[in-house]
Specification:
Blueprint (H helix, E strand, L loop, with lengths): L20 E5 L4 H11 L3 E6 L17 H5 L3 E5 L5 H12 L3 E4 L5 H4 L4 H7 L4 E6 L13 H7 L2 H5 L12 H24 L4 E5 H8 L1 H10 L15 E6 L5 E6 L2 H10 L3 H4 L7 H6 L1 H12 L4 H10 L4 E3 L10 H5 L3 E5 L5 E5 L4 E2 L2 E2 L13 H4 L25 H10 L2
Helix pairs in contact: 1-8, 8-9
Amino acid sequence: MLEQGESSTVGAEELPLAGIRVIEFSHMVMGPSCGMILADLGAEVIKVEPRGAGDKTRYLPGSGSGLFPAFNRNKQSVQLDIAEAADRDVALSLIDSADVLLENFRVGKMESMGYGYEELAQRDPRLIYCSLKGFLSGPYGQRTALDEVVQMLGGLAYMTGPPGQPLRAGASVNDIMGGMFGVIGVLSALRVRERTGEGQVINSALFENNAFLVGTHMAQAQISGEPLRPMPTRRATWAVYDIFRDKHDDQIFVAAVSDGQWHDLCDEFDLSQLAGDPELETNQGRVDQRDRIHRELQAALSRLDLAEIEEKCTRRGLPVAPVNTPADLTTDAHLVASGALASTGLPSGDQVDVPLLPLTFGGRRLGLRSDVPTPGEHNNRYRDGPADTSATDSGSGQTAKTDPFATDTDVEESKTQSQ
């Protein structure tokens, strides 16, 4: 519980990854989402973009227009053409100063430019190298992957759409969750490095992430021995677990997943005939008469509007939700009141409200510390900056990493973080 006057966000000096430096070579979603989570947790994330216009993800149209604004807050931007000899020394200096390198380019790309793990680990055995790909090592390892590719290949599209109409999920679930697994790997590798002094390569992949997501369906198929049915036509587990309509024909989800909830539902919506039917006392009995229950419940809900249905269900602890669009969430009462959205500045001068991480630390959010950077906004510090500065690790007696981009404050932080 926050005390009166206490900040609703975690202070920069208290963030879990304060003092950790990450160099991000990435684009699109998987790499940037991984980098943003690390940045929100307090790491100094330096996003390396090509010279000129920068990351092409910035300029995607249509449904891609929200990708860059959603996943690039709290980062620094420096522009380097890392394949060119002229920028190689600067790129290597940045990597030498880092705890973590993050990349999500196609298989073999980083190695072809001389930035593969084996080569960089010889320069710095403490480096943690997070490589995000379409597939982990195996027969598919060299394939090109997108979220759609692995959703089709991995059965998620089959389970999402109606029979014969495989459908991509409505968000980049594998890209984002794959980035989250990358973060889990990085955090674990940092912990291992504390004990061993050694870094390692971490791999996360879209396809294996998708397999993890559909694991319950895989188990179901093996247990039942029956063909899986897509979610829109799945065999019901509960009789009331569906979308209904109010008196204005607006949609709302209502569920009752226990005997107690079933009786509360019947009581709240005056379904006395259903409540008194002994054949409906068990969950299986209700599932067997699902169509009848739906007809009577829908008739009752058709006399009410969304707000009335939501209020009645909430009062009795019944699961309920109006069917919103993502655009509705920018004014959602809970998200707004709880500080879950960050009004984030874009290079265009516009502001967009995007979700913060769904975490609190001691009741406080991991907040917005810096807006989405312009291409090369931090070139002066990281590419064209001051002379080399070294720090000594007073805890171990070893020389800490040389950071040619450090300010005096950074040097003091480096002394602490390198222990």
